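User: Show me an example of a complex going from sequences to structure tokens.

Assistant: Sure. Here are the input components:
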Amino acid sequence: MFKKKKSLWLFLLPGLAGLMVFYVAPFIGGLYFSFTDGTINNSFVGFDNYTRLWKNEVFRLGLQNSLELSLICAPLIFVLSFTLSVMLKHLKEKSLFFRNVLLMPYLVPTSAMLIVWTLLFDYGGIVNRLVVGLGQERVLWLQSGAMRVPIVLLYVWKNTGFSVVIFSAALQSIPDEYYEFARLEGASSVKQASKITLPLILPTAFFVLVLGWVNAFKIFKEVYFIGGAYPDERVYTLQHFMNNKFATLDYQDVTTAAYSFALIVLALFGLMYLNKGVRGDAH
Amino acid sequence: MRTDNKTRWKTGKIISITLLSLMAILLLFPIVLTFLYSFFPVKEMNDLLGTRGNFSVDQWMDFPLSPSMVSLRQYYSLLIEKPIYLQYFMNSVFYAVVVLLFQAIVLPALSYALSCFKFFGREALFFLILLLMLMPFQVTMAPSVLTMKTLGLLNTRWAIILPLAVSPLYVFLIRQYMLSIPTDILEAGLMDGAGTVRTYLYIVLPACAPILGAACALSFADSWNLVEQPLIYLSELRDALPLSVMFNAIGESEKGVAFAGAALYILPAMLIYIYFQEDILTGIQLSDLK
């Protein structure tokens, strides 16, 4: 560890300056807009913008949809990536091929997949053939609330691999002896996963869950490509609301929405730290 | 008893391989289909895509798996006949490459400062980066539009490039990796009279090769898939829009070449992935998660 080196600034400054100019300063500067009324006088209006925005039905619709979609996607990805990582651990060195395949969709641009998605989920498409094969009625996947299914699947398809990589890295740090011992004791693989794997990778698991949730919260690309800029109200996200507010240059609403949003995330962040503190005490 | 457990372990392995194979087929299916259809004749694809949106209950779409003849016509049309696709494609290349260049200068250096130096406010700064990393894009984007406007960067390419140049996620990942470098190595370097700059260039960076490779691939994937930023920052500079935003708009006029367009669009990301695959699998380590 280097102490009191002047060269520190050489390394620190470019990044620090960038962070300050493009992330921190706007964040503080934007507060001004969320507390003023945007007229020529720009008078201070306290929390009026916030109360107005929170009563705005379109904003609430966007918030609700973003929350719902993220609460569908994040747990799905979490469970799926954990299960896949445990299976990969079974395979040891032979898992390379599968890990590559799992991560591949992460590299594929969302818009390039739209065309295939519209084929698969068409009224006469493959997915509906499966649905009919299972004895159900065909579904209009690309309309109204049902649109959530192709959207969520596209999101999960693309993002599961990244969580698998993080999980796999954590799983690799668990010594094989633990499992050998458990096997000698006759523990089933489900028991091994829940009694050995899960507790040992808890910090990573928590990280994956939080990062996955926050990322899923900003779900937009999938909705934008499948549903457009003004999609059905069951998939209208917060990002749609903000994009449309930008189009009308309503900075008051946009910044107010952003800070309302930040508060929610900060609350979650606080919970995460609290949780860590509690766990720390327990040990 | 032992053999019983062993067979159970083996069964577990077989189940794992089966399920993983199924999963692999499911995941690869859309990509393989895209590449397969990119070699179909333009007319055949036009006809197929034209049958979409038919809501009659007794009709199914065709699902052809082999073309009447293998054709490169789609590619020819995209690359030679209609330069518009290439124009947006090159925009995407531009963003990906320039963002990577900026990141290469800024991010490892910042991570180095945050992991190998002791200074006042280090923990606070790292906490801030963690916070920024977890903030949804909507939160940081809204106020930054105002900054862009003040700086005169709105509707210029810089509005896309500069915020990405200091992406908090990669600072986090690279710093976590740098923490795992044994401090003895750094101190040995100092003893030998290497300054902090030489230590950085000759010891730290080479030791971080896996995470740097991983970050390159992930950052490329990010830039290759930009949607939110261009829609907001470049709303009045349509010529500078990346392919990620324009791809489907171009596809509307000539559907028959859409699959070749998608395949060409996927290809660079694939190649980059294949080049860096080992780095991605070994570089992302969060063992020091704090």
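The lines above are the inputs; the final block is the predicted structure for all two components together. The longest strand of chain B covers residues 117-118.
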